[in-house]
Design goal:
The protein is α+β, with helices and mostly antiparallel strands. The protein has 6 helices and 9 strands; from the N terminus they run αααββαβββαββββα. The radius of gyration is 18 Å and the shape is globular.
Length: 224
């Protein structure tokens, strides 16, 4: 089967989203002849890759929204039987150097979260990945209050990094967004500003939305 082309309009994107609601990841992979790994423990990114493929996301690893033409980022959101998010949501990598003059307004966090297609996936631990069920996707743009929350968390934590205090950052910081290590293994080190302003090495970090924030987004949409 030919790879789906990127959607040309938001209506076309949402039609695709509606078409896959209620379908399992296994059924979807079979329909599109998308390779399903035997051991999904090692393929944590497979569900997201499948959804990107089927919906026609075109960005790949480029630092642009997944649906580049539409300026929309795709975020799949694993939820439990109770409808609550099961894990934090990865946003983007954290800049660890060159932070002089950096602002939230110009940050990748703000760009990535400007317009999001949330795709809830019933992913209770008891379900095999191929049996996970796709829910009703919806579009979201942060309101002024949410942007202010994100900006405060970004500024507080980026300031610590700029001051060479990255080791003071833990998952407890941030009201709605935290910074955590993001690396395939402990050898994947990168440059960071050290305690005395000199560069040193550390694990790459990622920005993650806390589950209480994504829970609030879900509640607003489905109960709004």
């Amino acid at each position: 089967m030919q790879r789906p082309s990127p959607p040309a309009t938001i209506n076309e994107l949402m039609q695709r989203v509606n078409d896959i609601a209620g379908v399992t990841l296994g059924e979807l992979a079979a329909q599109y002849q998308f390779k399903t790994p035997e051991h999904l423990l090692k393929e944590k990114g497979w569900p997201g890759q499948l959804l990107e493929y089927v919906l026609g996301a075109s960005a790949g690893s480029k630092p642009v929204p997944d649906f580049e033409l539409l300026g929309i980022e795709l975020k799949s959101l694993p939820i439990g039987f109770n409808g609550k998010p099961l894990e934090t949501t990865y946003v983007t990598t954290v800049p660890l150097t060159g932070l002089t003059g950096a602002t939230f307004h110009d940050s990748n966090v703000k760009k990535k979260l400007a317009h999001v297609l949330w795709l809830p996936v019933l992913a209770e631990r008891a379900l095999q990945p191929i049996d996970r069920i796709i829910g009703s996707g919806f579009l979201w743009q942060p309101n002024t209050y949410q942007i202010n929350q994100l900006q405060r968390d970004w500024e507080e934590q980026i300031e610590l990094i700029a001051l060479g205090k990255i080791e003071q950052i833990s998952g407890h910081l941030g009201e709605v967004m935290q910074i955590r290590p993001k690396a395939a293994n402990s050898k994947a080190l990168t440059d960071v500003i050290g305690p005395h302003g000199k560069l040193t090495k550390t694990l790459p970090r990622g920005f993650y939305l806390k589950t209480k924030f994504t829970q609030q987004i879900l509640t607003e949409h489905f109960q709004g």
